[in-house]
């Protein structure tokens, strides 16, 4: 409504101005109307001045509005207009704009304060860098973990913790890494992740990190407990019968008073029992020696000799080898590698050992009464190279999934329990991982994951 009134008043003033000019031009030069000419001329000057003042007042009010917004001055007010009620609507609109902008600023400030509180409460460190030097966000946990209180720029971090800052500078724009260094005499194992988002056309480096010493120690304790439990089980299986048979032979060879019997007092049946016991002890001793030899294998894995391995060629050679082994199971093998020339950087001998072990496990998991299928796949995913071994066997119970990589744990009667543990160590030496997904009575998939090295 104001804009229509404003336009009408401008047009009305210009019309009066033009009418005055026309009248002045009409009577100009007539000496009889000399005083009329002076009056019209003065009136024309007044009209022009009033038109300029009318327009300038609106401009000044708008300028005040923009200046208040620019400087976030929410105390600015617009009083009742001296130019009449036609300007009241404009001033009300200006006050609404100021109030709306004020509400937005308050809301943004509240959000910022909430975000700052949230960041300060995080149990991991976070640092945000702008222009590779200015620290825009740093929380207390970051200052505590790195020993950099009050750091406002990256140069100061270089001075207070040069080892951390130098290693961060050496990482890529989007990277993860584990770092170990000492802060104030305390060793820390830090898991670091870097992201580089673009905000308002400016690159920012977001660094998040966490001390994982306690988590690693907890995992180590759990691993030791599992290993000790399994070692105890295996050793007791051999030691218990040895101790029992030894005690039995001692009882047979001694009289009631604990003295050694004479040869004449020992009959053939007793000698047979002693011989049987000795054979059993020898067998269990051999089992213990084999167990110790198996344990030694876990600690003597050779360092991988890395070279380029064509995945499709290797998988086909492994399948050809496995098909030649005599087995009455009805199993079909499939190989699917995408792209066909996919190459992985690995030790071919160690990698073949891992895959052969997985395929062997898959074969043994497939019941003889069904049509077995084992699929070997190679593909790229999330900048990593994956080799998958999938079967439609009996699957692995959920309660055993957390145990299968523990040394000497086996679900098979004749299994050594080191195959998957060896495989995990071999993948670790390659900087990769091995993971498993399984559903009972549906099948199992093992995934070997390697970093993509161009």
Structure description:
The chain is α+β, with helices and mostly antiparallel strands and 454 residues long. The chain has four domains: 2-106, no CATH class; 122-211, PAS domain (Beta-Lactamase, 2-Layer Sandwich); 217-298; 307-451, Histidine kinase-like ATPase, C-terminal domain (Heat Shock Protein 90, 2-Layer Sandwich), CATH 3.30.565.10. Helix content is 53%, strand content 20%. It is built from twelve helices and 13 strands. It has helices spanning 2-27, 34-70, 88-121, 140-146, 154-160, 162-170, 213-253, 268-298, 311-324, 348-365, 398-401, 419-429; strands at residues 125-130, 134-138, 175-183, 186-195, 198-199, 202-211, 307-310, 331-337, 343-346, 372-381, 384-391, 433-439, 443-451. The strands form three sheets. Strands 1, 2, 3, 4, 5 and 6 form a six-stranded antiparallel β-sheet that branches. The chain has a five-stranded mixed β-sheet with strand order 8-10-11-13-12. Helix 7 (213-253) runs antiparallel to helix 8 (268-298). The longest helix is centred in the middle third of the chain and has 41 residues, at 213-253. The model has no long low-confidence stretch (mean pLDDT 79).
Determine the structural class based on helices, strands and strand pairing.
Answer: alpha+beta
N-to-C SSE series? HHHEEHHHEEEEHHEHEEHEEHHEE
Overall structural domain count: 4
* Low-pLDDT regions: none
Structure annotation, total helices: 12
Shape: elongated
**Average residue-wise pLDDT:** 79
User: Could you estimate the helical fraction of the residues in percent?
Assistant: 40-55%
CATH architecture of the largest domain: 2-Layer Sandwich
**Biggest sheet overview:** 6 strands, antiparallel
Just give the CATH class of the largest domain.
Alpha Beta
Rg over CA atoms, rounded to whole Å, is 44 Å
Q: Termini, distance in Å?
A: 68 Å
SS elements, strand count? 13
Q: What's the CATH superfamily of the largest domain, by name?
A: Histidine kinase-like ATPase, C-terminal domain
Q: Which fold name fills CATH's third level, the topology of the largest domain? A: Heat Shock Protein 90
Quote the beta fraction.
15-25%
């Amino acid at each position: 409504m104001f804009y229509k009134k404003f336009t009408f008043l401008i047009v009305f003033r210009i019309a009066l101005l033009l009418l005055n000019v026309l009248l002045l031009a009409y009577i100009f030069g007539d000496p009889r109307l000399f005083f009329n000419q002076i009056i019209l001329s003065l009136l024309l000057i007044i009209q022009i001045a009033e038109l300029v003042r009318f327009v300038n007042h609106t401009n000044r009010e708008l300028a005040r509005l923009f200046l208040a917004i620019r400087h976030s001055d929410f105390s600015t007010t617009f009083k009742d207009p001296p130019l009449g009620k036609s300007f009241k609507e404009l001033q009300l609109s200006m006050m609404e704009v100021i109030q709306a902008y004020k509400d937005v600023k308050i809301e943004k400030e509240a959000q910022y304060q909430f975000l700052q509180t949230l960041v300060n409460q995080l149990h991991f460190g976070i640092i945000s860098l702008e222009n590779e030097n200015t620290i825009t966000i740093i929380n207390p946990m970051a200052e505590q973990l790195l020993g950099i209180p009050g750091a406002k720029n990256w140069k100061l971090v270089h001075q207070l913790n040069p080892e951390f800052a130098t290693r961060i500078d050496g990482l890529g724009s989007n990277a993860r890494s584990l770092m170990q260094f000492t802060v104030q005499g305390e060793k820390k194992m830090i898991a670091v992740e870097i992201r580089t988002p673009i905000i308002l056309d400016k690159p920012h480096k977001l660094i998040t990190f966490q001390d994982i010493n306690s988590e690693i120690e907890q995992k180590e304790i759990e691993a030791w407990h599992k290993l000790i439990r399994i070692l105890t089980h295996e050793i007791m299986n051999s030691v218990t019968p040895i101790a029992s048979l030894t005690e039995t032979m001692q009882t047979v060879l001694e009289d009631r008073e604990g003295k050694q019997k004479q040869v004449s007092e020992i009959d053939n049946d007793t000698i047979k029992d002693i011989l049987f016991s000795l054979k059993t002890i020898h067998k269990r001793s051999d089992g213990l020696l084999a167990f110790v030899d198996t344990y030694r294998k876990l600690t003597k894995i050779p360092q991988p000799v890395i070279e380029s391995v064509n995945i499709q060629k290797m998988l086909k050679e492994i399948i050809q080898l496995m098909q030649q082994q005599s087995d009455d199971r009805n199993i079909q093998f499939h190989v699917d590698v995408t792209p066909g020339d996919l190459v992985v950087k690995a030790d071919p001998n160690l990698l073949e050992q891992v895959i052969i072990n997985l395929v062997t496990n898959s074969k043994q998991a497939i019941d003889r009464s069904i049509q077995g299928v084992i699929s070997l796949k190679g593909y790229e995913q999330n900048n990593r190279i994956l080799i998958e071994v999938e079967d439609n066997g009996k699957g692995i119970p959920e309660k055993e999934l957390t145990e299968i990589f523990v040394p000497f744990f086996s679900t098979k009667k004749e299994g050594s329990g080191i195959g998957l543990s060896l495989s995990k160590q071999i993948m670790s030496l390659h900087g990769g991982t091995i993971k498993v997904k399984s559903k009972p009575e549906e099948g199992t998939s093992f995934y070997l994951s390697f970093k993509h090295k161009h």
